[in-house]
Amino acid sequence: MRHLSEEDSGAILAGLTLAGMIVGGLGQWAFADRPVGAMAGIAGLALVYLAGGVPAGLRALRTLWVERVLDIDLLMVIAALAAAAVGAAAEGAVLLTLFSLSTTLEHRAMGRAQRAVEALMALRPDTALLLEPEGTREVPVGDLRPGDVVVLRPGARVPVDGVIRTGEGALDEATITGESMPVHKLPGAPVFEATVNLNAVLEVTVSRGIGESTVARMIALVTEAQAAKAPSERFSAWFGQRYTVVVLVGSVLAFAVLLWLGLGWDAALYRAATLLVAASPCAIVISVPAAILSALSAAARGGVLFKGGAALETLAAVRTFAFDKTGTLTTGKAEVTGLVCEGGEEAFLARLAGLEAHSEHPIAEAVRRAAVARGVTPVVVREARAVPSEVMVGIDAEGMLWAGNARLAARMGTRGEAVIPPEIAALSEGAETLVMLGRGARILGAVTVADLPRDSSKAGLVALRQAGVRRIE
User: Fold this and answer.
1) Which candidate, 125, 116, 189, 132, places its Cα nearest to that of 157?
2) Long-range CB contacts (< 8 A, 24+ apart) of 217-224?
3) What is the pLDDT of residue 208?
4) To which CATH superfamily is domain 330-453 assigned?
5) By the 8 A CB rule, do 284 and 72 touch?
6) Is the pTM of this model over 0.90?
7) Which of the four CATH numbers 2.70.150.10, 3.40.980.10, 2.30.42.10, 3.40.1370.10 does domain 127-220 have?
8) Where is the P-type ATPase A domain (predicted)?
9) For the chain, which terminus, N or C, has the lower number of CB atoms within 10 Å?
10) Are the CB atoms for 279 and 308 separated by under 8 Å?
11) What is the pLDDT of residue 248?
């Protein structure tokens, strides 16, 4: 049997309370002239007091016993009981219903925090391939220690933080850094727990245990951020404790003074209870969590995630924004933005796409998409291989081809910029990535590749400026 979370149980109790309020209201007002209406009214209000009052009363008594604090829970329950005692059970039920809904909103916010932590925990692989002298052995990730060497196969998640010992390949680090483009890693480069090895076999030396890993630190940060209350929440809690004492003391004093003035016991109790009900802090209890939760939900629907109310309220004072450009302000997908070549563009693009067909790099994917968009069939390229940090070389029907940057062009005998055609040199002056295609010392052409801005980026940046943000990076 599945154990109900605090969020689920709170939602069920709030639903029962609301249902009881509806039934009780209909019975007392809509069908008051019928026997069944009176019975339904009593049953509905009893359900409200049980589902809404008992949990709140238990919380209040626990807080009073453990923390020696009179909180708003206690005030609400006493006010509801006092209302019932003087014949105004419906008014007390309204208080309990509103209070139950408020508590449900708070539990929902706390549930979001728990789910965020669980999502981070789910990123962690359970086992790793430990490299030993006699071969590899699958071990629990918790058994890994700094200095151990693990083997990463294509598609595997990195089990712990470490440094690449042998091999090179692309890793998807979006879960950790938010970078949507794969990151090419060479020996000596750091790798982080929960990132994904895309296309190569790597040996990684463990640098930190699981308790000190990147994901462990992220979980700690998320937990701390969710536990931090917003200024308005802290003020509400501070004010609520003192307000509870004032109202309870005031009601007792009012009862005593009314008795001293000669008012009857019933009349004095009724007026003291009226003070309790009228002074019940429904607005204080409901307004702050409801406002914060509504804002968090609205932001989430727009694709913005806050780690709690404190972060949300801090945003009002922010005057500087720093964006991770790739995948945030841009589409996160490279596209060919320019092409210069000698001869026909289709023949040039066919050679370049044929060579890049052997690479999983985002730039190679952009070239292949450009060829498909133009209806170009890539030529067959054999013996293609990647040159670290410089891109690709291979052989087509006419001989060796290379595709890469100026450093690779120099290696292939072009002697750098001296023989780069002016139109290609002009392409390199922009912010786009330049990829040249050549055969030996001859440059056949070049393309520029860029991660294009999202359609909504400009409007978003303008809106930030209008909201008072002075600096955007």
Assistant:
1) 125
2) 218/120, 218/176, 219/117, 219/120, 219/121, 222/113, 222/116, 222/117, 222/120, 222/307, 223/113, 223/117
3) 86
4) Calcium-transporting ATPase, cytoplasmic domain N (3.40.1110.10)
5) yes
6) no
7) 2.70.150.10
8) 123-222
9) N
10) no
11) 82
**324 included as an active-site residue:** yes
Distance CA 103, CA 296 (A): 17
Q: Which residue has the tokens 């001293």?
A: 260
Res. 113 pLDDT band, cuts 50 70 90: low
User: Around Cβ 25, how many Cβ atoms within 10 Å?
Assistant: 19
Instruction: Specify the amino acid at residue 396.
Output: D
215 burial level (CB within 10 Å; 0-12, 13-18, 19+): buried
Looking up tokens 């992220």 gives 218
Phi-psi region of 469 (alpha: psi -120 to 50; beta: other; left: phi over 0): beta
CA distance 322 to 159: 30
Contact between residue 355 and residue 394 where contact means Cβ atoms under 8 Å apart: yes
Q: Among 367, 374, 371, 372, which Cα is nearest to 335's?
A: 367
- The 8-class DSSP code of residue 181 comes to S
The catalytically annotated residue of 161, 324, 396, 451 is 324
pLDDT tens, position by position, 176-223 = 776 667 788 888 989 888 888 887 788 899 888 887 887 778 777 766
Exposed (0-12), middle (13-18) or buried (19+): which is 5, by Cβ within 10 Å?
Answer: middle
Higher pLDDT, 40 or 136: 136
